[in-house]
Amino acid sequence: MIPLDMEIRGDSPPGSQTAAPFDLVAPIYPALERLVFGLRLTEARKAFFDRVLEADRVLLVGEGNGRFLKSLIGRERVGSVKIVEKSHAMIRLMKNRVGCPRKVALEFIEADFLRCRLREQFDCVVTHFFLDLFNPPGQLDIINKLGEMTSENGTWINVDFTPPRALGGRVLMWLQYTFFRMVCGIEARRCFDESPMAAQNGWIALASLSFLGGLVVAKRYQKGSVPAASHTTPNTTG
User: Fold this and answer.
1) Beta bridge partners of 127
2) In Å, how far are 27, 143, 147, 164, 178 from 119, measured between CA atoms?
3) Tens digit of pLDDT for each residue in 175-217?
4) 3-state class percentages of the chain: helix first, strand second, coil last, to nearest 5
5) Does residue 109 contact residue 85 with C-beta atoms inside 8 Å?
6) 21-230: in CATH 3.40.50.150
7) What Cα–Cα distance (Å) separates residue 192 from each residue in 129, 132, 155, 181?
8) In 3-state terms, what secondary structure has residue 47?
9) pTM score, whole prediction
């Protein structure tokens, strides 16, 4: 494929006329994350990174301030990357962060994901710390839409917090969700395991990696059927 110059199109109309909740914390979010979790969430975002690089058409949902995006387009690859992000402030930070690379066709779409209409299908969709903002009904709607927007045998990589077992993890998650509900008005009061809903919608979990003692889990899903030999228990490492 001939390398494509980067294209940053005008922002799509926002999904809501009100400011996106994360506009309030966008400038301090990286510092806040590092204060609480160090670099572990950055490491988790790079789980299955090679799978993303292999895809020609990539969709990032709820990318935030663009740290993963910068890593992605910084590698020698071609193709296209679309980013759906509701927060105008986060998109501005992303554009400042990535600069002007020339090998990737890049498009920012400022919109609520569930109200966004994209005509194409993607080889790989990526959701980093996005589903955990929603309760199960909202998660199910998102997972349904991800399936509709992913090509046959496409890949979905999800990195998220999981329901904690240890007391320390439960306290940390309570503090985190209380803060983001108060400041950003997120829907969820706690995190949920998306695996049953993913399986219900035909996503097959092929592998997983755990971080922070299992508090964060990265999962690689494949859409549709896979050879029988591939139906193995996902690998989990700490």
Assistant:
1) 61, 158
2) 32, 17, 14, 38, 37
3) 999 988 888 888 889 999 999 999 999 999 999 999 999 999 9
4) 40, 25, 40
5) yes
6) yes
7) 12, 7, 21, 16
8) coil
9) 0.83
